[in-house]
Amino acid sequence: MLTLGIESSCDDTAVAILDDNKTVVSLRSSQDDIHALFGGIVPELASRQHLKAIQPLVDTALQQAKSTLDDIDLIAVTQGPGLVGSLLVGFSYAKALACVKKIPLVGVDHIAGHLLSIFLDETATPPLFPYISLLVSGGNTALYLVEGFTEFQCLGRTRDDAAGEAFDKVAKLLGLPYPGGPQVARLAEEGDKTAFSFPRSWLGNSFDFSFSGLKTAVRNQTELLGRKEEPLPVTDICASFQEAVIEVLSEKTIRAAEVYGVRDIATCGGVSANGLLRQRLTELSARENFRCHTPQPEFCTDNAAMIAFAGRMLFQRRGACTNSLTADVFSRSTLGH
Ligand code: KG4
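# KG4 complex -> structure
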């Protein structure tokens, strides 16, 4: 069964083709260069760029898979959450293809795609259900109990900024280019993580997160240091900030695994490419006897293979189909709430 996956929820256009569960092609057209000029994503530019990229990307994916649209059995497309203008490009395109070629269409929650991205790595042992998944990206930060391929329970999520957003904003504050996460992580390697004592938002026993206070603390500290007219200790700020984020993310994930009595822990989303997060989760899991699963870097970031996979699972288990031409996108996820 060939599934065509289409993803356009934010600033990357992505297309993938899966043969059953095996990824045959996974392509991504990045818009980083365009948004880097503005230090963050400009929604209108993102939508316009999706329009330009989507058709050539689908053509290339089909060519590389040595297939045509006539071979496609299912189209899976991101329906939300994300930037509405960006989502509408991929969703309308997929609806049109499905309608003209009479191919079943399934709308996928982008978060479900991320939570299942761990199954795309054919070389690794997949987690057993139920497992705890930490979703950390530029737009979302949440903890989920994944009970099956279509069963998700949201245990907590950010009350303000997403972790990736905090990385990007701190990077901007320090004059680093967009996207800031990889830049901050790289500079943090050379810094002292104990140089500044930035706040950790534990929020009691809740599995929710909050990163806006931390971001403000970094801004206040940077302004204070700036007034001394000495060079900013950028590497120390990066290391201390990163430590504050990773400590909260990893400790809450381990506690969720303990509270829900699971053996497996996974992480997903762009920030799960972060070396310190991977290392800390692996160490804490080993200490507490949990099995830790981290996706290959290409599947951490937004991609269409995860959308195709999640769509195929939804289609097989529920026969769910988004055939209505009036179906719309959504900006906020209600997955597992
Ligand atoms: O999942 P993703 O590709 O896109 C969405 O946000 O949906 O995540 C992108 C985010 C950006 O905020 C980026 O700065 C962050 O992931 N990121 C990182 C790292 N690599 C990417 N943050 C921290 N450390 C990294 N190594």
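# post-check
The pocket of KG4 is lined by residues 10, 137-139, 164, 167-168, 179-182, 185, 269-271, 273-274, 301-302 (CB under 6 Å).
The CA atoms of residues 1 and 20 lie 5 Å apart.
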